[in-house]
Design brief:
- The structure holds 2 protein chains of 2 kinds.
- Chain A contains 4 helices and no strands.
- Chain A has helices at about 5, 10-40, 45-50, 65-70.
- Chain A is elongated and about 60 Å long.
- The N and C termini of chain A lie far apart (about 50 Å).
- Residues about 70-75 of chain A have low confidence and may be disordered.
- Chain B has one domain (about 5-320).
- Chain B has a two-stranded antiparallel ribbon with strand order 1-2.
- In chain B, strand 1 and strand 2 form a beta hairpin.
- The mean pLDDT of chain B is about 85.
- The chains are: A mainly alpha, B mainly alpha.
- Chains A and B meet through helix 2 and helix 4 of A and helix 5 and helix 6 of B.
């Protein structure tokens, strides 16, 4: 089977629209993520270090990558 | 082998899509209900009722899509080609709502309102386009290689109406879920909203039930021919009973009752969809058998599916069990 036989007959306008949409969405989402990262970097660590709370067996536990940013143990985050 | 592989795969995909509608339905519904709750504390509780389980819910969408690709490649190519724009728009909605789960808690305070809009808007866009996709699919897609004549099949009144109808359905699922998961004033608020939405949902069911046979003579034949009519006759009756029970259970100290009755309503609607679709995988051009891949690939992928599905069901059940009970203000996984 040649590539041209397998290709779908999507109109070019449709493909351009969805491609443009993907680019816009990724720029927005990753832009927001980058801005958040820069915001964290700009903070003074002494101000933002949270009091240790939660942990194994308690109601609040780190479960997501982003949880580590807020609920660190104060070393090496 | 005595196993009818295409049918087994069709059942797996129908099951996956049903699990998706049931589980992501209430979860998208929570986003839809944001405009009814203005204070941040209330919204945090709403999000925290699903925060530990929501991403598992979308597993079923992936399983349905991947299953279609593996078992019915011919159908996959037609569906994706005809409906790529609404499918991509649905995914964009899911992207924004997915990241909003994290950013509404983590973003600088000034930016949080924007993520609430992303959560609510993303949920609405995803639900609306799911409704459009569903009806455009049921309406029938052009055979491969045939031009649809420059028209956009999904951009017509009935699909747009089913898009709105799905917003109501998911809103009701979300509201009754929150009745089950919250307490006090917030719970009372959602009980009131559930009551209103239950009438709206009845209206949607009635309009779709009347509009469908008019719009699709093929489905009208299916519904109104003897002996099918005898089998389908109890469905409207069951819808009436479920709706009545839903409203009664909202009246007294509400717990899980309203949510469970809403699930029954959704299941009844979904069974109507299956009845109308059979035996097609892409109505009206491809039946389940026509679209099925070679038996070797069906068998090979079935082994994988049968290993994975029990695992998904187990961890899903477990996470709902771990996070059972009411969610209170200030409690969250974050």
């Amino acid at each position: 089977m040649r590539t041209s036989d397998a290709a779908s007959s999507h109109p070019a306008g449709q493909v351009a629209f969805t491609l443009g949409l993907f680019v816009a969405v990724y720029l927005m989402v990753f832009g927001a993520g980058t801005a958040y990262g820069l915001h964290l970097l700009a903070e003074d660590p002494a101000d933002s270090a949270p009091a240790p709370e939660g942990g194994a067996g308690q109601s609040s536990q780190a479960m997501r990558p982003l949880s580590a940013a807020q609920e660190g143990d104060g070393h090496g985050n | 082998m005595g196993i009818d592989l295409p049918i087994v795969w069709a059942v797996i995909i129908l099951f996956a899509v049903m699990m998706y509608v049931v589980m992501d339905g209430f979860d998208l519904g929570i986003g839809l209900l944001f405009p009814f709750v203005r204070d941040r504390g209330g919204r945090d509780v709403m999000v925290n009722t699903v925060a530990p389980v929501w991403d598992g819910n979308e597993t079923w969408l992936v399983l349905g899509g991947a299953g279609l690709f593996a078992a019915f490649p011919a159908a996959y190519s037609i569906v994706l080609e005809a409906l790529s724009v609404p499918i991509v728009l649905m995914l964009v909605g899911l992207v924004f709502r997915g990241v909003a789960f994290e950013f509404r808690f983590k973003a600088p305070v000034a930016a949080r309102a924007r993520w609430d809009i992303a959560f609510c808007g993303g949920s609405a866009v995803a639900a609306f386009f799911q409704g459009i996709i569903l009806e455009a699919f049921l309406d029938g897609l052009a055979a491969p290689g045939k031009d649809a004549g420059g028209s956009v099949p999904w951009l017509s009144p009935f699909p747009l109406f089913t898009g709105l109808g799905l917003l109501v359905e998911y809103g009701l699922l979300g509201a009754t879920w929150l009745v089950m998961k919250t307490e006090g004033r917030l719970q009372m608020r959602f009980a009131g909203i559930s009551g209103l939405l239950s009438w709206a949902f009845l209206g949607v069911i009635a309009i779709v039930s009347v509009w469908t046979p008019f719009a699709h003579p093929r489905i009208a034949d299916r519904w109104f021919s003897y002996p099918n009519l005898l089998w389908f006759a109890p469905v409207p009756l069951l819808v009436g009973i479920a709706l009545r029970r839903l409203r009664v259970s909202l009246g007294r100290a509400p717990g899980a009752g309203p949510f469970l009755w809403t699930l029954l309503l959704v299941f009844l609607g979904y069974s109507g969809l299956g009845i109308s679709l059979w035996p097609f995988v892409v109505p009206p051009v491809l039946t389940i058998r026509d679209a099925a891949g070679p038996p070797q690939s069906l068998g090979f992928t079935l082994v994988g599916a049968l290993l994975v599905i029990p695992v998904i069901l187990t961890y899903t059940g477990w996470s709902y069990w771990v996070f059972r009970g009411k969610v209170r203000a200030g409690e969250g996984y974050h």
